[in-house]
Inverse folding.
């Protein structure tokens, strides 16, 4: 019986979510490595190519609403399996496109929808349902998968582009996405929540198994109720703007570095440098959220580090300066992934986390989708990324202060 296992099943969910998110976001953040080679081959502007990333994130955002609702009904393995299959097909087919339209369909539409099934809504919401006392730690460990995947895959993509071409790189990402997504989802992500399997959150042993409420997997919450809640809008706006900043950086940082005379491989590796300290930050800010009065302070501290990093990026002209920026910015960036579900569960309740996080992710995706296209537009208009980095600095100041106004309030659902 599952309930007799010495290792609480929630930790298997953490391990599975770590791997799925690693592949999903590691592959996504490789886009910046492919941006310049694609513009050169197609002889198109960066805004035209970046539009594919914008379409990708918009569809990811829309899909998150439905994925969040489904996650409160069914086990995550089927959502992840479907997402991995669609994403893999999108990556592989993108390696064969010959026009912007084909690129928008394969990378924008197929990969965008597919990554929703393997994204933070599925993975961190699944983890959040299995923990209360150790929620910050568990989600922090899960979120480390994002940086781990980026550390591994961005240098790999940079190597393949440098010695082969961008098409080969996308095909390789597709194969890896399918294999890891399928195997991990079907082995580790089979359960919905602890109560549905006669267990308690955190592996608690304080209740007799037959006394545990075998609560249903689905807890319905009205979207209208959320839209009337000011806390929801504070989270939606702040997180959306934060991801606008982060996606503009991930998509355009490599091109910015090579424009300043930094080598392709070193520029690509700077994304791995962000992920290296992001890896540390995801654990730290997840842990910190369990040990402070309110997890919103963890988020604001993280965006402060991002702000310092963006200031450094404006003046980065050498490999050393680029890496120094990346280490500072990356540590702060590590706060985003764990903070959102932790704060959402703290404010609204654990049992409706999938639905709420899915809806939040829609607005996060809207903000994130602006970043890549905005960066390309500014570059095409001004001939540099200077104005983009200044906009990012202003936005980070705003969200750091705005999140500090977030209040407590009513929780929805029957448990934390």
């Amino acid at each position: 019986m599952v309930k007799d296992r010495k290792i609480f099943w929630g930790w298997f969910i953490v391990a599975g979510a770590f791997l799925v998110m690693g592949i999903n976001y590691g592959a996504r953040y490789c886009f910046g490595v492919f941006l310049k080679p694609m513009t050169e081959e197609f002889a198109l502007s960066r805004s035209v190519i970046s539009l594919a990333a914008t379409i990708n994130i918009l569809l990811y955002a829309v899909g998150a609403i439905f994925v969040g609702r489904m996650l409160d009904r069914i086990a995550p393995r089927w959502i992840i399996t479907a997402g991995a299959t669609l994403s893999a097909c999108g990556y592989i087919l993108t390696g064969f496109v010959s026009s912007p339209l084909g690129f928008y369909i394969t990378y924008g539409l197929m990969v965008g929808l597919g990554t929703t099934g393997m994204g933070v809504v599925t993975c961190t919401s699944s983890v959040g349902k299995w923990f209360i006392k150790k929620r910050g730690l568990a989600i922090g460990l899960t979120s480390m998968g994002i940086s781990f995947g980026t550390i591994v895959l961005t240098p790999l993509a940079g190597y393949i582009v440098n010695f082969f071409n961008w098409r080969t790189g996308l095909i390789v990402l597709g194969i890896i996405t399918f294999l890891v997504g399928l195997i991990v989802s079907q082995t580790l992500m089979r359960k919905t929540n602890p109560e549905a399997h006669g267990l308690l959150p955190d592996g608690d042993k304080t209740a007799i198994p037959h006394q545990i409420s075998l609560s249903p997997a689905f807890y319905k919450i009205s979207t209208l109720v959320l839209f009337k809640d000011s806390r929801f809008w504070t989270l939606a706006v702040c997180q959306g703007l934060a991801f606008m900043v982060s996606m503009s950086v991930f998509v355009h940082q490599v091109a910015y570095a090579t424009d300043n005379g930094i080598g392709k491989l070193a520029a690509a590796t700077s994304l791995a440098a962000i992920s290296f300290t992001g890896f540390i930050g995801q654990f730290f800010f997840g842990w910190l959220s369990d040990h402070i009065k309110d997890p919103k302070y963890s988020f604001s501290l993280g965006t402060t580090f991002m702000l310092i990093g963006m200031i450094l990026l404006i003046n980065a002209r050498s490999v050393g300066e680029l890496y120094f920026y990346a280490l500072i910015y990356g540590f702060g960036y590590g706060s985003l992934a764990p903070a959102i579900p932790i704060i959402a569960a703290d404010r609204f309740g654990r049992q409706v986390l999938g639905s709420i996080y899915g809806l939040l992710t829609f607005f996060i995706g809207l903000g994130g989708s602006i970043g890549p296209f905005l960066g390309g537009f500014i570059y095409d208009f001004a001939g540099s990324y200077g104005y983009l980095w200044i906009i990012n600095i202003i936005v980070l100041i705003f969200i750091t202060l705005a999140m500090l106004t977030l209040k407590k309030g009513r929780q929805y659902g029957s448990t934390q």
The domain at 2-201+221-403 is CATH 1.20.1250.20 (Growth Hormone; Chain: A;). Residues 87 and 111 are 4 Å apart (CA to CA). The chain has 16 helices and no strands. The radius of gyration is 20 Å.
